[in-house]
Automatic annotation (TrEMBL):
PANTHER family on file: ARGININE--TRNA LIGASE, CYTOPLASMIC (PTHR11956:SF5), ARGINYL-TRNA SYNTHETASE (PTHR11956)
Compartment annotation: Cytoplasm
Similarity-based family: Belongs to the class-I aminoacyl-tRNA synthetase family.
Domain DALR anticodon binding: 458-574
Oligomeric and partner information: Monomer.
Organism per entry: Buchnera aphidicola
GO BP annotations listed: arginyl-tRNA aminoacylation
Protein name: Arginine--tRNA ligase
Amino acid sequence: MNLKNIIKKDIKNALIKIDHKEYDPIIILNKKTKLGHYQLNNLIKISNILNLDPYELSKIIILNIKKKSRYKKITFSQPGFINIFVDEKWISEQLERIFISSRLGINRSKSQNIVIDYSSPNIAKEMHIGHLRSTIIGDVMARILDFLGHNVIRANHIGDWGTQFGMLIAYLEDKKLKHDNLSLTQLEKFYCRAKKKYDVDKLFAEKSREYVVKLQNGDKNCFSIWKKLVSITMLENYKIYKKLNVTLKENHTMGESVYNKMLPDIVNDLKNKKIAIEQDGSTVVFLKEFKNRLGESMGVVIQKKDKGFLYSTTDIACFKYRCQKLHANRIIYYTDSRQHQHLIQAWTIAKKANYTSPNLLLEHHMFGMMLSKNKRPFKTRNGDTIKLSALLDEAIERAMHLIKQKKTNLSKKKAIQLANIIGISAVKYADLSKNRNTNYVFDWDEMLSFDGNTAPYIQYAYTRIISIIKKSTIPVNKLKEKIVLKKESEINLAIKILEFEEIILLISHKGTPHILCKYLYQLATIFSNFYENCSILFSKKIKNRKSRLKLSILTAKTLKKGLNILGIKVTKKM
């Protein structure tokens, strides 16, 4: 139920009767419900366009929409606002529809093929905290679009091709190291050593490049080693995905190697179409859309002098594959802002070559950095990048310490399970609750607090409601009477529940999970106010008890669904 959209549509139709043109009414939820549940916020702007006095325009709008049963009262306030009171009986009817719906009344959208490119770790390296935002924000978007009925194609674009594999294979062969039983930690150490040797030892560098060529040409030994290196890395990454409760699986892996065979044809095709030219032995595309400091068209190299390919070439091939093979209607990337120019340049080249369809949407959902309390990049005391596995282990340890402080009577097994849920949820929610476009400060105390906009607060609110429902002597299947909305706290809770669909649809377009976190926090606090002002279990009137119990159940369902979309687990006891 998208109540804001319904009001918006009603006002749009009223405006069309005046001018036969479409206007965009801005409807906001009023913080003070005494002034109205909703408000038309841009009446003055519309009245200026129509050359009408705001009050006169308000009278025309009110006259056109006030007869609808969903409105109780509509008023004008200076200097130019229309205040809308929604009818409580109509709200109750919408809640009843949601109550019996397995989808909380949210309809499926017209299905699209949507590719979401997220997480994308590198092979032979452990995932670090820099991978957290892409992984969990991208996963929320995948879950939302799944829920809305789209065909979501999760694309884990891992870095599994290139010179680094020549270096690693050369190092393993040089040191006569067996690759069968290596751990990812060992593999990363060997990679660092191989890179240092590559930079100073010309013979080793030449040998590394030879191995790259062998790998590209399908050499069985090189291919076998490469496959094992990928397997070792991804096995550890899947453990992290499972711990984070993200939906990425093995079949979602679409690494750089997928597009390798396409690259020679891409380069030849771009040259044949006069999009790319030879310059000093390299193949370059000059883009007039991008200028350097001298105002000259920027060059994007797609093949080096040594005939090697670049990331830009792979990304052009990737766009072609996703459009022509996966038939994508929309492609969403979750990478940090530093990748933006590179991504748009590759996209521009792909469009020039007609590899993409005109209606295909490309969206780069950028995000900021995770900072320490001193507002610097979050690192270890030694200045090293923090491993993601270490961060999650610490979160669980801190959550366990909290549980012990609370002196709960949980068994050891249940305490460990609860610590896992609280710790991982706290880290995820702390990130997801911040606007992805900004940097944020990582604070253990804040994220594990049971107060404020945190996972523990929302999770506890859910368990509290479940506890209330369990204490009720009225079976859920006996709740046949309609919800009755009399008190202000009941109405506020009802309207907030109805807002859920609007929030879900907004995030499906913008990819901003912090909006959902804010909504869930507001819903939990509004329920707390409702609980304080309305007796749920002990009201003298049975119809009030039943009505308030239904509101409690709807709140619990909404909180659970919202947290599920965030990839956060709930628990019945805390």
